[in-house]
Write the structure tokens for this entry.
Amino acid sequence: MAAKAFQKIFTKITQITKATCTLKASGVGNDELATVNGRLAQVVKIANDEVTLQVFTGTEGIPTDAEVIFLGKAPSLKVSELLAGRFFNAYGDPIDGGPEVDGEEIEIGGPSVNPVRRKQPSELIATGIAGIDLNNTLVSGQKIPFFADPDQPFNQVMAMVALRAKTDKIILGAMGMTNDDYLYFKNVFSNAGVLDRIISFINTTENPSVERLLIPDMALTAAEYFAVEKNEKVLVLLTDMTSYAEALSIVSNRMDQIPSKDSMPGSLYSDLAKIYEKAVQFPEGGSITIIAVTSLSGGDITNAVPDNTGYITEGQLFLRRDSDVGKVIVDPFRSLSRLKQLVIGKKTREDHPQVMNAAVRLYADAANAKTKMENGFDLTNYDERTMAFAKDYSTQLLAIDVNIGVTEMLDVAWNLFSEHFTPEEVNIKQELVNKYWKK
């Protein structure tokens, strides 16, 4: 061993697997970065003096006498106001042709916030998407996933949320994204003139999949800076957490760990929780809200990734294509925001809870009518009106391309009620009917 300017250099590797190499070393920290034969690696296990390193690009061609240099630090991000408007890779290096960012260097992946410092969330996060704001209202400090089939336009929905959400900063963490999607996000943000409040950390399908594991921590380290130091409302968009979980599974398989359900590592729950639990509302006004995409293979909600996610998060948003109107909607039956009652009717108009419930009930009646029709039963006049309402409700409110404010959404719903039903059929409190029913 030789020491060169405080760097520890070793040249005797005792074991090499597909993704890792092991050597005897001392004075090395957990998560510390190193280079093995010039390739970037990270400490993943320390047992006495045996240190195991995960080599990000794989170990192929590395000899046992390769030079291993420990860099003396874990992955970190330089944080400052200068992050805004920039695109970075998984290591926090700029990929937009701009200069390096100056700022305070902070190790990524720190602990989540002490519960004592958390405040009951009570701020509305409006996204402009009625399927969310009307039926599944989001609250600052909430953590919620989009469950979507791989063919759903979830990245477009994420971009829409980024453009419309009423927050101070938006941080995009993209894992396993195609180059087309990356360019799509870049163009949408640039053309909308919102780059100054968006920070993006991008891992594309061309980058090593192991690098995806750094993206959420990079995004959340930036989020914590703006929420804690600047008291800002920060929205973190993570897409796609299934890609993240697949990268976890690749690493654990290469390290010969015994897989759990769906070939995922046994640590999947805590790996996901470590990310989602960073969502927080601070008493000082800053907040971190996390919306993540979990893509479902073949619509399978019982897969280990959505299954574990459901235990950690506060609800879910479910995208599906409505074949009756040919649009992708936020499904009112399978979506749920567990915190919406903290803001609906309090931070939104008084009629919001009743309008939301009445619309979903009538939409359910339409689903029953459709089943009757498919089974060859005669439809009543009421059945036919509910089906007409359902089409209008899907097109004008549930579709993801609807972009209006919460008050306007409520007005649209009242219009639909009065167009298709009598006040008795809608069954909303009389004083609200007197005030809002469209004559």
